[in-house]
Amino acid sequence: MYHHISTSPGMITVSPDRFAAQMAYLAQAGYQTVGAAQLSAYLAGGSLPAKSVVLTFDDGYLDNWVHAHPVLQRHGFTALCFLVTSWPGDGAPRVHAHSGGELPELLGHREGELAIERGETDRAILRWSEIDAMRRAGTFEFHSHTHSHVRWDKVARNREEKCAALRRDLLAARAELETRMGEVSDHLCWPQGFYDDDYRQVARETGFRHFYTCEMAPNIRGAKEAGERSIYRLEVRDRPPSWLASRLWVHSRPALSRAYLAVKR
Ligand SMILES: [Zn+2]
């Protein structure tokens, strides 16, 4: 799980050089990246090469285009990006790290949040034209992270209002992705990693089956959860490739991963 790839440092930011080094490590170690459909088939009992990874990016930040897209393209890698579908703007694609020219200003995470609150989402978030270019290049797939990113459990006055608001939010996200891309998947990433039984119920009813959490646990093939799947993720930090290698080694071994997480908790 990545958020920002940026020269503006932050808690959930990996620097462009570190990200490039991490991806170079994956390529050199023989890893292949896997898209949402392949992940889904694997979890339902299919097979994948042992060295397979799913790269995910939350929120759809501009820096994903500027710094992640060119690196993924160089390695022939694909990542999943979870879009907050009311955020991307219109306009021509901006300069990215391999296209030549002056790069757009990249906001830090907090500055970006403030810009979004002020309605200046274009300063922090991808444009639809960039999303198109990333899809055409095969570097990114785009999936739902709701339409608004609002934590309805926090702002709704009661359970009924929470469920109704989440339903509208998820349906709006589906409609926007369908309109913009001509397709929408059943993969959904929970805003701020939050979900409860109501959230899962509403998401099921609005057509989602794969729920991406911010929790860490092994993703076990064939383990059924009433026709739906929670997908657990490793938060990749701004660390050298050796750190990523050691984490992949541990968490691709379910028994070891569980033991490690139990000790860590
Ligand atoms: Zn988010």
TrEMBL record:
Transmembrane segments: none annotated. GO terms for molecular function: hydrolase activity, acting on carbon-nitrogen (but not peptide) bonds. GO terms for biological process: carbohydrate metabolic process. Gene3D superfamilies: Glycoside hydrolase/deacetylase. InterPro entries: Glyco_hydro/deAcase_b/a-brl, NODB_dom, Polysacch_Deacetylase. Residues 51-265 form the NodB homology domain. The keyword Cell membrane does not apply. Pfam families: Polysacc_deac_1 (PF01522). It comes from the Bacteria. Keywords: Signal. This is Polysaccharide deacetylase.
